[in-house]
Amino acid sequence: MIKLLIAFLFLFVNFMWANLLQEAIDNAPEGSILKLPKGLYKGSIVINKPLSIIGKEDGVIIDGEGKGTVIQINSPYVTIKNLIIQNSGDRHEGIDAGIKIANSRQSEISNCTIRDSLFGIDVSMTNNSIIADNYITSKDLDLGLRGDGLRLWYSNDNIVKNNKLIKSRDMVVWYSHGNEISGNFGEYNRYSLHFMYAGKNFIKNNTYQFNSVGIFFMYSQDSVATGNVIKSSLGATGMGIGLKDVSNFTIKDNTVIYCAQGMYIDRSPFEPDTKNWIEDNKILYNSEAVHFHSLSENNVIKGNTILGNIEDIVNDSRGSRTNENEIVGNYWDNYQGFDKNEDNVGDTPHKVFQYADQLWVYNPSVKFFYGSPVISLLNFLAKLAPFSEPIFLLQDEKPKLKL
C-alpha cells in the first residue's frame, strides 16, 4: 500500500510539474525571463510571446515524452538557453523536432543540448536570429531515417555558429539568404551542409569529417566559403565540396583531404556571363582532386595546392569543356617541368590529358580494374606510343613549383 501511494505521488508531481511549466509560460508577461532550476520538465512546450527560458544551472531537462515537438516557438524575441531538450516524437511528416521556431526574428537558441530528437532545430521564416553553441544529435536510426540536425527554410540574415551536429542526417539551408554559418562541426552525418536556392551566404571556418558529403551548393549564387576543413567524406562517392548550377561563388582557403572526390563541379557557373572563383584551396590526398561533370566553364581556378591525389582531374562528360576554365598559378605535384630562372613558375604549362587508364570515367564498371596490371600496361603504351589521341583536359599556364 505504501509503495502504491509513493508511485501515485511521484506520477502526480511529475504531471503537475509539466503543467506548471506551460502554465508559467502562459501566465508570464511579455519579456519575462524564466530561470529554471535543475530538474525534469515534461510535456511539449509552446511559446507564443516574447520571453526567455534559461537554465540557471546544468541539468535542466525538457522531455517531449516521445510525442511531437518538444519546444515550439511562434513569436519574435524569444531566448532558449542552457537547456537539455530530448525525446521528441518520431514522425517525419510532422517534422517532430527538439525545437521548432517559426515566424520569428531577433531570437536566440544557444548552449542547448538536443538529443534523442528526430529533427534537431527547425527554423522557418525566421530572420536576424542567433543559433549558437548547441550540441545536436538525432535518434538512433539508420542514416537516411534520421531527421536533419539543423534546417533553415526561408530564413535570412541569421548567425549560425559553433554548433556541433553528430549523427544526424543533414544541415540544410534552403531558400535562405544572407546567413553567416561559421565555426560549426559535423561528424557522421549525410550532408554536413547542403544549400539549395540560397544566396549571399557566408560559410567560414567550419569543420566536417566522416560525413557522406562535406558542403554541397545547388541552384545558388553570390556566396563565399572560406577557411573550411572537410576531411574523410565516406563512401566510394564521398565528396568534399560540390557545386551544381551555382554562379558567382568564391571558394577560398579551404582544405579538402582524404575524400573520394575533393571538388565536384557540375554546370557551374550556371548563369550567363558569371564566374566562380576557386582560389588558394588545399586539395590533398583524395581519390580525385577535381571532378568535372556536364558543361562547366568560366571557373577561375587559381593558386590551389593539388597534392597527393590519385587523379588530379576527372572529366566524366565529353562536352564539359574543362579547358575553357581559367586555370593558372596552381601547385601540381605531378608537374614535370623546370624553373630555370627560379621565379617559382614553371617554364612550360602543366597539361593534363586523359589516357587509356581512365576508360572507367565513361564506363564505371571498368573502375573495378583500376590499378590492375592490364590497365597500367594500357596506360603505359598509350603514353609511349599512343594508338589513339589522348583527350586534352586542361592546362595551367603558370604552374607553381614550390609551396
Automatic annotation (TrEMBL):
InterPro entries, sorted: NosD_copper_fam, NosD_dom, Para_beta_helix_rpt-2, PbH1, Pectin_lyas_fold, Pectin_lyase_fold/virulence
Name of the protein: Nitrous oxidase accessory protein
Domain Periplasmic copper-binding protein NosD beta helix positions: 133-337
Pfam families, per the entry: NosD
Gene3D superfamilies given in the database record: Single-stranded right-handed beta-helix, Pectin lyase-like
Organism per entry: Halarcobacter ebronensis
Alphabetized NCBIfam families for the sequence: NosD_copper_fam, para_beta_helix
